Amino acid sequence: MHIFKRLQQFYWPYKKYFINSLISLLFVTGITVVYPIVLQVTIDDIVLKDRFDLVPYVALIFFGLMVVKGVATFVHQYLGDLFGVTTVYKIRESLYEKLQTLSFTYYDNSKTGDIMSRLTEDVERFRMFLSVGFAEIVRITLLIGFSLAVMFYYSIPLALVTMAAMPFLIVVVLRFDRKVHPVFRQIRKSFGRLNTRVQENISGMHTVKSLSREDYEIERFTKSNDDYRQRYLESASIMSKYFPLMEIIGNICATALLAFGGYLVINGSLALGELVAFFSLVWYILGPLMNLGFVVNSFSQSKASGERIIQILDMDNQINEIPNARKDSIEGNVVFDDVTLSYANTDEQALKNISFEAPKGKVIGLIGATGSGKTTITQLIPRFYEPSKGNIYIDGRPVTDYSLHSLRKVVGFVLQEPFLFSMTIRDNIAYGVPEASEEDIVAAAKSAQAHDFIMEMPEGYDTLLGERGMGLSGGQKQRIAIARALCIQPQILIFDDATSAVDMETEHAIQQALKEEMAGRTSFIIAHRISSLKHADEILVLDNGSVVERGTHDELLENKGTYERIYQIQYQDRDVVMGQTERKEGAYET
Amino acid sequence: MKHKQEAQFLEERHLSRFHYTMDQAVEKPFNWQQIWRLLTYLKPYSKTYLPGAILAMLISTAIRLIVPILIGKVAIDVAIANKDMTMLMWLVVIVGILYVLSYIANIFQIKWVNVLGQNAIFDMRQQLFSHVQRLSHRFFDERSAGSILVRILNDINSLQELFTNGIINLLMDVVTLFGIVVILFVLSPKLALAIMVILPIMFYISTALRRTIRRTWQQVRIQQSRLNSHLNESIQGVRITQSFTQEKQNEEYFDGINHATFNSWRVATKKSAFFRPLVEMSNAIGTIILIAYGSFLILQGVENGGIEVGTFVTFAFFLGMFWDPISRLGQMYNQLLVAMAASERIYEFLDEKPNVDEIEHAHEFHAMQGEIEFDHVKFAYEEGRIALHDISLHVDAGETIALVGHTGSGKSTIANLVSRFYDPVSGAVKIDGHDLRDVSLAELRERISVVLQDTFIFSGSILENIRFGNPVATDAEVIEAAQAVGADDFIQKLPEGYQTEVEERGSILSAGERQLLSFARALLADPSILILDEATASIDTETEVKIQEALNILLKDRTAIIIAHRLSTIRDADTIYVLEQGRILEHGSHDMLMEERGEYFSLIQSQFRMLDSM
Known about the structure:
The structure holds two protein chains of two kinds.
Chain A: H1 2-6, H2 8-11, H3 15-32, H4 34-47, H5 55-101, H6 104-108, H7 112-154, H8 156-162, H9 166-203, H10 205-210, H11 214-267, H12 272-290, H13 292-313, E1 334-342, E2 349-358, E3 363-368, H14 374-380, E4 389-394, E5 397-398, H15 404-408, E6 411-414, H16 425-429, H17 438-447, H18 451-456, H19 474-487, E7 492-496, H20 504-518, E8 522-526, H21 530-533, E9 538-543, E10 546-551, H22 553-559, H23 562-589
Parallel strand pairs in A: 3-8, 3-9, 6-7, 7-8
Antiparallel strand pairs in A: 1-2, 1-4, 4-5, 9-10
Helix pairs in contact in A: 3-5, 3-7, 4-12, 5-7, 7-8, 7-12, 7-13, 9-11, 9-13, 11-12, 17-19
Chain B: H1 2-15, H2 32-39, H3 49-80, H4 85-134, H5 137-142, H6 145-157, H7 160-187, H8 189-195, H9 198-236, H10 238-243, H11 247-273, H12 275-300, H13 309-350, E1 372-382, E2 385-395, E3 400-404, H14 411-418, E4 426-431, E5 434-435, H15 441-446, E6 448-451, E7 460-461, H16 462-467, H17 475-484, H18 488-493, E8 501-502, H19 511-525, E9 529-533, H20 541-555, E10 559-563, H21 567-572, E11 575-580, E12 583-588, H22 590-596, H23 599-613
Parallel strand pairs in B: 3-10, 3-11, 6-9, 9-10
Antiparallel strand pairs in B: 1-2, 1-4, 4-5, 7-8, 11-12
């Protein structure tokens, strides 16, 4: 029950809806049971006793009750729904807020699909329970209670005989529920696999066609498609076993009622109208009982769903601000002092004893193989991760002294994967400063060499990106991401392999423009191409989380280490070609 | 004043910062032809499951209609009225037997209906998927992956209910309604006529009211899908949001759409809450007519054209049975509208013809040599946007050519024409002297491998991913191929070696490693012609060296067309073609072209100037 307690803050403010809905429900079920009584009165007291004068009263009372029931039904259903919908609105609000602030570490270890299913399916299941599930438990209990009361009032022995099969029905219903749910889960899983299969096929269609593997793909699809069909048929086979069984148990009750009830009427110990009323009452009990499985299941599912929602809400943010964090403006002098970072769940170290100084206005280059720790170093600066040992200082203070907002707003980050939002190009560039002026936006786009291709689009800066918008090439996306980082006028600029997908000429142009932008700012450039970082004030060569070489381009070439080897490989052709042309040029001169 | 305006402008700007697809709720008109076409999917089962399911349905429906008559007319009016215990017991036995029959019929109905429906759905999905596999590049160029996915998965699924229970229930409900009306009229035409008053009311509620309710729920779906789109995007872009400290602004935006969603729910639930009370009121009206007029008829006596008590009871039983079929028929209408929209989208795909077609008796290469010829080829992706002008080139079997030029110069188009992903507008592409339009497509592509810039990784083990190049290859052959291209080293370092599970979005593999995997794939496929679209993505230098070495192995003994960026590959090509805006500017070997000091020369030179100056 702690789940419902933990989530209480979301639904308890709306308890008014809930309570009124339940009160209405009391009326609804109470009046439902009146129908068979009216039938009984009509037969026993009007028809069999020739009291036709009573008809208007019975009709009027019945009509009046039905109007009350109609209103109560409306109120019950509407308020019940409103209770669930309002609660879910509040839960979603909190979830979203939480998701905005969870750490990178959390996102590194979770899948978008999993978070999404918590936000959608789990929230929806919880709503269902609040809106319908709980009320259904109350309704079943009340309806069965009222109906049994009326039955026992009419005839105790007949009620006992009729209801003899009830326990069997409950057993069958619960067993069905236990059997069918794993199969439903299987169906969902199988559909998930089918989904993945088709999605991969379509996304990888060029690869499929390039290797002409269509038949192979169809074969693999057939397997998934058939599996999905088989799972469904499995569930159908369970249903074909249990549904008819439930129905025949109900019918056995009805048959017993006919036999024993008919006997009692012939006997004279039961009125005919009472027998007819029994035929209705019997289904008021059996019907809800057949629904019992659904209710039980909805309860346990909503518990599980609530738990998954709470897991997100109670997740530790990991990166927290100290009280009274500084909101000073930042100049951008970055110092790493013996920084070590371990991965959360292993002892493996992502960074080992990293120290360097990056005073304002300087450029730091980072080079090294995939996984050597380049990206991690830069992500420590805006506190996306926290070092396990050592300190990072900005303007002489530990980064933890600053508020997250004041720290991050001075860091212009271009991440490796240029993620753009479903916004106009203008809003994407102004993402960090929604109040940016048009001039600032265009200036940033120009520096990132994005202005020209943006202007070539039919809608220019108003072009929509994302699911609804234009598809951009990888290089174009990277350029918009660069403009986005420049647009916030940051004190610290970080380029994480930011031009990997642009062609060489454009990269050249970007670099020329950036030279201006980088003046007066602290910059970090991560790259594989030596040409991208050879002008850096200091280059750190990383391997396996450690700095193995450091210095300027020329110093590193002198050093004849890893850097020099990379240089040789990348520039081997240059000497051949340029040598050749120089030779040729020489030849022409003579 | 000005400040206020500005503030308002800014607020609007960030409350409308995100834009998502908002489907329009369009209702398709009823189209019998489409329904008929849907029904053809049941045809394969028209002699087995279909009649079986219908028969079972008819049996159980008949029993459901007979029992109330037995109880009302026979048990009450005859057995109980005459205090005939024996007769009552006989009746109980008969009802019992009928229930057992109904039990058996039910079992088979549920079974067969599902087999029927699931098979039809399976067939349809299979047909659609296979058809889509055969469609040309152009088809995929024009659509997002998501929109194709929705057709194959969701649209087909939305027909599931129709094919399983829908059609049989439709029949059952029509039979039930018709049966009840007939029975009531036989028992007492007068009372039946009076009670029939509620039928139009019920039909009205089930159709018109349901329609307004349906529209409000459509709004909910539309709002909900925008909400989900944003949630999904905000999760994927959370790193950017935190980098740029836009958490608060995004929360405000989310608040707006969350509230809009909440409102649509409120409207929908309110409208829906009217439904049940109205249904029950119409039922109540029926009951009142029955009580008033029914008891009057009983008092009149049978001899004066009145009714017996049993008839009254039977009417009461049937009155309760009206609503279900009418309600389901109303739902059925909803379902048909959904099916209409879904099937229209499905047919749109099924009716799409692949735009490169095979001729009958297409030529089969028994052993492709790999000699390629472009004979005055002109090509346009869209009318008016010419991608290739009059291209002629010849590649001898076993030769390697490199295509060089700026983005959009036509390099990839040439490669696409060799695989016949498109047909030229005029001129001809020939392999071993055969016009590609005359050869078998499957065989042609079987003999050509294309290594793309962005290699797709399928979810599965590394082993399976390489085997994708040749599904019949043994594990040993796969490993051999990986070793040959130098991919074995990094694979061995992975936690589970060749059995390591990878997927497209997983970050286990770097760009360079993916490239090596695709080389292994291509090597395993052992094609006569290899087309290579070199990557521009920056790859760490160690891997780069491996890729260079792997290339030499891959190119051995085959015809190769390389869309080249790396100078080393260009230099080693037998012939280099320099392209600009769909035309060949010059061609020849590296040395020749350097000597000529033409476009190629300046291209190479400017690249190195840039390298030096950066």
